[in-house]
Structures are given as C-alpha cells and as structure tokens.
Amino acid sequence: MTITRADAVRLDAADPLAGLRDRFDIPEGVVYLDGNSLGAPPRAVAGALAAFADDWRRDLIGAWGSAGWGGLAARLGARVARLVGAAEDEVIVTDTTSGNLFKLLVAACRMRPGRSRVLIEAANFPSDLYVAQGVCELLGLELGYLDEGAPLDETVAVVVHSHVDFRTGEIADMAGLTARAHDVGALMLWDLCHSAGAIPVDLTGAGADLAVGCTYKYLNGGPGSPAYAYVAGRLQDRVRQPITGWGGHARRFAMAREFEPAPGTARLQVSQAPVIGMVALDAALDAFEGVSVEALRDKAASLGELFVALAAERLPALRLVSPRDPAARGSQVSFAHPAAERILAEAAERGVVGDFRPPETMRFGFAPLYVRHVDVYEAVERIAAVVPA
Ligand SMILES: *Cc1c(COP(=O)(O)O)cnc(C)c1O
What we know:
Blueprint: H1 5-13, E1 31-32, H2 44-59, H3 63-66, H4 72-84, E2 91-93, H5 97-111, E3 117-120, H6 126-139, E4 142-145, E5 156-162, H7 174-183, E6 187-191, H8 203-206, E7 210-213, E8 228-231, H9 275-285, H10 293-314, E9 319-320, E10 332-336, H11 340-349, E11 352-353, E12 355-357, E13 361-365, H12 373-384
Parallel strand pairs: 1-11, 3-4, 3-5, 5-6, 6-7
Antiparallel strand pairs: 2-8, 7-8, 9-10, 10-13, 12-13
This protein binds pyridoxal-5'-phosphate (PLP).
C-alpha cells in the first residue's frame, strides 16, 4: 500500500508533541535530519545569550552570584539527570564527553586496582576508542574489544559501551551488560551521546556505575556545548579523577596548596566553568519542559518507522543498516549505498540534511522535538530524486 503525503499529515495532526516545533527556529524549506550530530537551536537560546551579555556588563564579577553562574554546573546536571534516569546529584555538566570519559576511566581503573584490562566495543565512537587507548597506555593496561570476542572476566576493571551505536542506531542492553560486568566485579561506564533526549535511559534501573554524554546532539545545547558526567551515588566519594584542577577542589577560593576533592560529582570539574555554553544549554533544555521521555521515544519511533516504510517503497537501492525493529533502534535510521556521499550532497542541495559516515553510511536523525512526519515524507521524495537509477 502506497504511503501518501496525506498519511504523513494525519500522523502530524495526531502527534501530541507537534506544538513543540514552535520552540525551535528551523529555516523554511529545510528538512533537518542531522540533530543527532548538532541539534537545531531552540528559540530561547538567543534571548538567553543576550541576557547573559547584559548580566555580565551590569554586574561584572558579581554576576557569578547575581546571575547564578556559580551554580550552573550542578543545576544543569540536575536537569540532565531527569532525562537519563539518575538522581539530581548524580550528574554534573562539565568539560567535553572525551574529557569526562578520560577522567572517569582513570577513576574506574583506580577503583579496581590489580585488574589489567579495559573493555570497549570496536564499533564505539572513535573518540571513545582513542581515549580508552590513551588511558590504557597511561596506566599500563590492556584494551580489549568486546565485539571482537575479548573475554569479560575478572581481569577487567571497567567496561565502556555506547548506549546507542553511532553508526547503526542499535540500542545496547544497558541492564544486561551492566549485570554481566558486575558479575565479574568490573565497573560499567555508559556513553549516552546518542540516547539522552531521544530515548529513555535508566541509569539507576540498570545499576550503572558511571556515564558520560554530550549536550549538542539531541539536547540542542549548541556546537561544543558542555558535556555531562554521571557517577552513581554509592561511588561518589571513592571517585578520584586525575585532572585535579581548582574546579574540583573542595574549597576553590581558599587557594590552599594541596588538592582536596570536592564532595560528590563537583570533584569532576577541572577549571572555571564555560558559562556562555552553559547559559545556552540551560535555555535549550527548556525545550524539554513538560515533555516525558516516553513521549519523545514514541514520537521518534513513529518518525523512524515512517522513514523506513517510505524508503522500502521509494528507495529500494538503499540498504537498511539499522535494526528493523523500532524497539531495538535509537532515534536514527542509517542506510548504506556505494554513492552515499554524493546522494547526501545532492539531497543537501535540495534542503534535506543528513550525514555521511565512511565508507558508505548515510545517517538520518529524527529529533522528536522538531521533526514532523511531513518532513520525513518530504525527505524521502527529495532523496528519491537524487538516488542513481
Ligand atoms: C558525539 C560523541 C562524542 C563527542 O565527544 P566530544 O568529546 O564531546 O566531542 C563522544 N562519544 C560518542 C559516542 C559520541 O557520539
């Protein structure tokens, strides 16, 4: 049965999240399916940045208190916590994903002295691989690849895994893998870059120990917006991260000679906070106000399903590389085609923005706050016009 534009319009009319698109400013005629790389700007961000400039001009250094800059890292952490199934004081917004991964990996290895190996999946995001390689080199440990048969046994200090695979969108079994790591006494560290803000994440329910994630993808914090780190409450006082800057000191302004870690997740900070980026993120997170994570998931799944069904009808030359089952897939759908790069370039000229991952993967992200079903329909129409016969 052929799917029509009217079907897509009907799905939008029945979509409980349809009104949220007004919280964003998407250029007319553009179908933006790259929110899994860089989220679109929420309208509130520009005003918040103007207000920030005003606070700075008016109150100068006093704005750390008057404008609340000093408390942003913890306050933003609490806001992200709701989206990842953590307690408010288990998440802090600081640094970058890669930087946080480095700090937490070293901390994890220190909590498992005597263990000689770290495990990661070879399919993980390259930066995670590079950081894990660097940590192993630094600490004299061996790195094993879980998806290439490296054993998960009592020699493993920590397992690092992405919740959603960045190429295929496949969702990992968070509770299952965490339990397997714990069975051999290893710690479990999750990367949530491609899940927070798009699909439900339950760090608490899974018993996860540590996690990192970025805020510029589905959380729409803007390019290079600060990342977050999660440490389960039970581990917080044991975490000793290696970059002991004044940002993580218990009494930063005492200007003491010796480092003394701040309580809780505050010790994961290194330096003065990147306030501009945090102000933008704070405003961006308003776009999630009043929205349940389950509703986000349902909308994303509906968009992805429509895309897969339309592609099966109109884009038979593309090979689906994401799981066919929407429950096994995050908020993205990936296809392979030998001419993927050229197809994406030509689609972009027609206002459809997806992204390319070598050698032949095209990724399309369905940010549930602002992508409509008609956008999905429109995207497939325009892509069909550029796929070589
Ligand atoms: C996007 C992404 C990152 C990005 O790391 P940064 O250090 O914040 O640039 C890291 N890991 C994964 C899995 C990602 O998807």
